[in-house]
Amino acid sequence: MLRAFIAFGTLAFTVLTASAAFAQGNSRTAPLGGRSALMGGTGIAAGRDGAAPFLNPATIANVDDTGFAFSANFLQVRSMSVPTFHRPGAVDSSFGDLVLDKTSLTTTEVDLLPSTLCLFVNLSGKTTQGSPGHRLSFCFGTLERDNQSKLAIGYRGGSSEVRVDQGQSFLRRWSRFSIGPAYSVNITDELAVGASLSMLATNFDQLSSGNTSIYSSDGQFLATAIDSVASATSIDVGGAVGFTYKVDSNYQLGLSVSAPSLHILGNYSSLYQTQYSGSVDSAYAKRGEGGFRASMPAKLGVGLAGNLRDVRFELDASINFPRNKATEAKLAVDELLAVSGRRASERTSESSFFGNLQPVVNTGVGIEWFFRPRLGLLLGASTDFTAVPPLSQEPTIGSISFSRMNRASGSIGIGSYGQGTELAVGVEISHMWGKSFVLNPFEVPNRLVPVEQSGFGFVLVVAGATNLNALRATVENVGNIVKPGPKK
Predict the structure, then answer these.
(1) Cα 11 → chain centroid
(2) Phi, psi (5° rounding) for residue 469?
């Protein structure tokens, strides 16, 4: 016991002192596995479900037989609140003395979330003590997923002197999908090593659109509009190596190292335009097309798992290392500026736009208490801090960071274990806070500004696993039921 905590403390100290910055962008937006998700996202030391190949490929040695593991995070409910959505910043003097109340916006979304599906294969068959055991897995799953949108938002404000009519829509969608094999071998009874290779597909879509009209009692009229749209895809290759070590019969350590991903191909398309109609009419448009890369940073994770009487637990810590130019868009840019009474000016150029990631430390803890021989109560807690740098300047074409959110989660569930089958059912509840870019329609020209944002989320997790023997027995039982009896 003492040796386990000393070893874990040494590894955790290495991780936790690597950086004092807390941020992330965000690696735990899509829960992995079932049991792992309900135990605080842990599994670096003793993962045994569909999350194992993603968290630490060495832990697939914990899978006893050839079989399947699936996870279906069936339902997500998320509510986000922006207190200053309709008046996020300063009001230009050309709009006069505006009276704007009830400026907050709350969005509630219900979504279906896919997660992981894995096939595990025992390459060694039955092994004797001391002989190496080889395991192979092939998995696909959603590593990251974030979706926030609100379309056709209407707003009216003003006073007896001035009336304001406004319409807005926004959408932010981000996902990262992984598919590939993982391999693990027990070198000794205590030590297992593993490696994984994955193809990564990252997709990003963004839309911010708004139109504002100002009417005054003296007959004056102002109108502003802004549209910002972007779509990007990046295909990359990722790899990881991992180790697990049994300290004694009760405790096991895990270490996982993920290399920075290698880019293969990608594309980016963006359009940003603003219009103003008042004493002088003007319009500005900027369009970019070209290549795009969204790389994953290097990552180090450590874990300690314990298997005591009626209780299993795991403590994990991980760090995502900083990466300059984590995202890069190399674009051909066309710009146009038009002002009433003047000749429009146009310009073309070749430009590169970069996004950096800061270092981030995240932790997770999970407990499983067996209140019955085959039934366990699953409890977990985790953090998901963001690596996105603080939002300051307005995003330009080539940007993908339109929000900066942190998340803290807690989970509870039930795990059921049968002959060759497992089932986990539970819920994860999270609190989110941070900043997001929203449209300020009262600046000339209109622009996006950062504002405070907070909310909560709820995910229903249903996951399970079975081996081929259990599947074969089920098929045989069904066949016996539907098989017609002898003719009389």
Answers:
(1) 26
(2) -65, -40
Residue 35, judged by CB atoms within 10 A of its CB (0-12, 13-18, 19+), counts as buried
Beta-carbon-side half-sphere exposure of residue 201 (alpha carbons within 13 Å): 7
Residue 57 is given by DSSP the state G
Token couple for 84 = 């200053």
Q: CA 485: distance to chain centroid?
A: 54
φ/ψ of residue 133, rounded to 5? -115, 125
The SS3 call for residue 470 is: helix
What is the chain's mean pLDDT, rounded?
Answer: 83
pLDDT tens-digit map of 72-119: 666 788 898 998 888 888 777 767 677 778 888 898 888 776 667 888
Is the peptide bond prior to 445 cis by the omega test (within 30 degrees of 0)?
Answer: yes
Three-state DSSP string of 2-50: HHHHHHHHHHHHHHHCCCCCCCECCCCCCCCCCHHHHCCCCCCCCCCCC
Domain annotation for the chain: domains and CATH numbers: 2-482 (2.40.160.60)
Task: Pick the closest to residue 434 from 383, 400, 393, 386 (CA basis).
Answer: 386
- SS in 3 state form for 248-302? CCCEEEEEEEECCCEEEEEEEEEEEEEEEECCCCEEEEEEEEEEEEECCCCEEEE
9-38 pLDDT, tens digit per residue, is 433 333 333 332 223 357 777 778 888 889
